[in-house]
């Protein structure tokens, strides 16, 4: 880090500072980011963030500005950055130096000190550029059990909490706020500054694969929980603080209303359907996020059908290209003034290999594209339409040359560009990155490995569980019993006082862990092959269901089911003595509930339908509207 002493350089005269301020400054040092040996206003931490942004914006070339409007991926062994234990230094330098990108998502999952080391390394690359603009490094959620590309990351030693659905099951705002505070410390310790979360999407379509990362189906509850999450991450209810993490709430708006649950990452899920009444509910779930001044908002992928604003139908384009959703509604009506960051790859082309991959030929990363409603446009026109709709920064791409071409062709005004770049830069200044973007690698290891915070996370795993059935006072189970296990670690069972047997005939009881049912309906689509879709009921032939039938026919049976989606449990409930719902929990956490070491406190954050027929009749945009649900929300 280049530090210059003002006492040696003596170069404040041009800023006409008061004599006392100049004398004070001359005893201090500053980061000479543009390497000119002078303290320029954007380098002066005594000035307001607004003054510093104004000064820097005037110094930037148009190439640097359009580069700032990209939010790319830090590459590792592959361009998507999720394979390997270090960044590709050469390609990172190209993206920073040539494409002028200063915002990146990191997908590394390495030890905390290694993460800090890698993030420091790319900050040093950025410091060597013409203006030394520091990088903003973002991440998908890292503190939960699920790891699905494009949605979440797991690993690296971060404290392991239940999914956000589990936090919703507990329903404790102070706990959600505390989770945000802990995750914030872990992120900042390792050099991560932006959380691409939380999801304020409503879980209204049970088959939707993104349900697990929501806060459930109730708009008011979702709004409150999302607000607490943002408060914890950003450090206050009034916006981003210096030691905070910028939260990017998503996905504006209506994402959960996907017919058949087919997700908007995929061509076959490019449409969501609502009416004005249901749309208003989905919008209201963002209320506290906006009130607490979330640093960022991410628009949704799908085209929203069936909705009118001010008497006009929404333009049939994805939200990232929709002026009505981003400018008319979000900025003008809701008064939002922060960053609008597009979801990933909305400007990419979607050829036949993307929209209809050939059978037997799974899509590669070249087919990742979500330009819904603007497929026929050129990339240049997509960038222009996105900016003119209200996008400040484009996620998942580094195509600054294309955006530059759109500007030079007169398709985007400099006023638009300057407004967007100002929002990106403001977050960097608010986080203190211009004063020091580096982190202490040894401290990162200590902070992320803090046993007290890991214990808090483990406690939350236990609290989030829901006892759906406890027949005949099955709980608690006494130690010393002989137990047959399915998908449960025998070592954890023994640690809880059980004798593990492999023969059901010798067991006193059975304990099984199962997942909510799913199908792989689109195995050749990049995201469809990675998402749980389709039916939610247990059927003959499914491995988990066969294990339940076998065990329950022999001995009293306890089943813990992970509800990443609202499973149909009608033909499970009648076979078991104990039925527990989990939302991300270790074996030890489940066994603690079973033996009575702790108490499950959760309540269902959505209803569980009674059958597929009832589920298929419900409106995907409306919360909890299936006929005669097996378990109601709040059970």
From TrEMBL:
Q: Which residues form the Glycoside hydrolase family 3 N-terminal domain?
A: 61-426
The record's listing under Pfam families reads: Glyco_hydro_3
Q: Do you know which InterPro entries this protein is assigned to?
A: Cellulose_Degrad_GH3, GH, Glyco_hydro_3_C_sf, Glyco_hydro_3_N, Glyco_hydro_3_N_sf
Q: What class of enzyme is it?
A: hydrolase
Q: Where is this region: Disordered?
A: 615-635
Q: Where is the signal peptide?
A: 1-21
Q: Name one GO molecular function term.
A: beta-glucosidase activity
Query: What SUPFAM superfamilies does this protein map onto?
Result: (Trans)glycosidases, Beta-D-glucan exohydrolase, C-terminal domain
What EC number(s) are associated with this protein in UniProt?
A: 3.2.1.21
Q: Which reaction does it catalyse?
A: Hydrolysis of terminal, non-reducing beta-D-glucosyl residues with release of beta-D-glucose
The entry's keywords:
Glycosidase, Hydrolase, Signal
Mention one GO biological process in which this protein takes part, according to its record.
Answer: glucan catabolic process
Q: Which family does it belong to?
A: Belongs to the glycosyl hydrolase 3 family.
Name the chain's protein.
Answer: beta-glucosidase
């Amino acid at each position: 880090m280049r530090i210059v002493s003002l006492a040696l350089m003596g170069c404040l005269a041009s800023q006409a500072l008061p004599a006392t301020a100049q004398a004070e400054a001359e005893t201090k040092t500053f980061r000479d980011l543009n390497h000119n040996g002078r303290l320029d206003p954007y380098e002066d931490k005594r000035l307001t963030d607004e003054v510093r942004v104004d000064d820097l914006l005037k110094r930037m070339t148009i190439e640097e500005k359009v580069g700032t409007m990209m939010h790319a991926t830090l590459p590792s062994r592959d361009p998507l950055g999720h394979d390997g234990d270090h960044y590709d230094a050469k390609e990172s330098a190209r993206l920073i130096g040539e494409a002028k990108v200063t915002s990146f998502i990191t997908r590394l999952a390495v030890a905390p000190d290694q993460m800090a080391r890698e993030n420091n390394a790319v900050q040093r690359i950025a410091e060597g550029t013409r203006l030394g603009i520091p990088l903003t490094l973002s991440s998908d959620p890292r503190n939960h059990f699920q790891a699905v590309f494009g949605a979440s990351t797991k690993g690296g030693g971060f404290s392991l909490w239940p999914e956000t659905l589990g936090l919703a099951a507990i329903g404790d705002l102070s706990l959600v706020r505390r989770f945000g505070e802990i995750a914030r410390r872990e992120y900042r310790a390792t050099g991560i500054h932006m959380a691409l979360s939380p999801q304020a999407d409503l879980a209204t379509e049970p088959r939707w694969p993104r349900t697990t990362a929501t806060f459930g189906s109730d708009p008011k509850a979702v709004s409150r929980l999302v607000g607490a999450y943002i408060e914890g991450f950003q450090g206050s209810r009034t916006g981003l603080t210096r030691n905070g993490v910028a939260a990017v709430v998503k996905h504006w708006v209506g994402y959960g209303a996907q017919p058949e649950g087919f997700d908007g990452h995929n061509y076959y899920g490019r449409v969501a359907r609502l009416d004005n009444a249901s749309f208003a509910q989905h919008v209201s779930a963002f209320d506290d996020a906006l009130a607490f001044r979330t640093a960022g908002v991410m628009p949704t992928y799908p085209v929203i059908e069936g909705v009118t604003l001010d008497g006009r139908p929404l333009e049939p384009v994805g939200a990232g290209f929709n002026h009505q959703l981003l400018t008319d509604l979000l900025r003008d009506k809701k008064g939002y003034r922060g960053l609008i960051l597009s979801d990933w790859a909305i400007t990419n082309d979607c050829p036949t290999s993307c929209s209809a991959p050939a059978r037997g030929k799974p899509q590669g990363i070249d087919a990742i594209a979500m330009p819904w409603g603007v497929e026929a446009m050129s990339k240049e026109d997509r960038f222009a339409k996105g900016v003119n709709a209200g996008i400040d920064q484009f996620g998942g791409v580094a195509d600054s040359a294309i955006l530059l071409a759109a500007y030079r062709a007169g398709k985007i005004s400099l006023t638009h560009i300057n407004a967007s770049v100002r929002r990106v830069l403001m977050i960097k200044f608010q986080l203190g990155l211009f004063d020091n973007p580096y982190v202490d690698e040894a401290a990162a290891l200590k902070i992320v490995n803090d046993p007290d915070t890991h214990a808090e996370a483990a406690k939350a795993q236990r609290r989030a569980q829901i006892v759906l059935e406890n027949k005949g006072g099955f709980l608690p189970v006494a130690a010393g019993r002989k137990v047959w296990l399915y998908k449960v670690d025998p070592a954890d069972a023994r640690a809880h006082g059980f004798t593990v047997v492999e023969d059901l005939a010798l067991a006193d009881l059975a304990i099984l862990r199962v997942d909510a049912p799913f199908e792989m309906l689109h195995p050749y689509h990049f995201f469809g092959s990675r998402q749980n879709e389709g039916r939610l009921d247990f059927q003959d032939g499914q491995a988990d269901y066969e294990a339940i039938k076998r065990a329950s026919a022999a001995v009293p049976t306890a089943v813990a089911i992970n509800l990443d989606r609202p499973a149909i449990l009608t033909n499970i409930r009648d076979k078991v003595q104990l039925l527990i719902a989990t939302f991300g929990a270790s074996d030890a956490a489940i066994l603690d509930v079973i033996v009575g070491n702790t108490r499950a406190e959760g309540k269902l954050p959505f209803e569980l339908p009674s059958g597929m027929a009832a589920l298929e009749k419900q409106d995907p945009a409306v919360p909890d509207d299936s006929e005669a649900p097996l378990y109601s929300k709040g059970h």
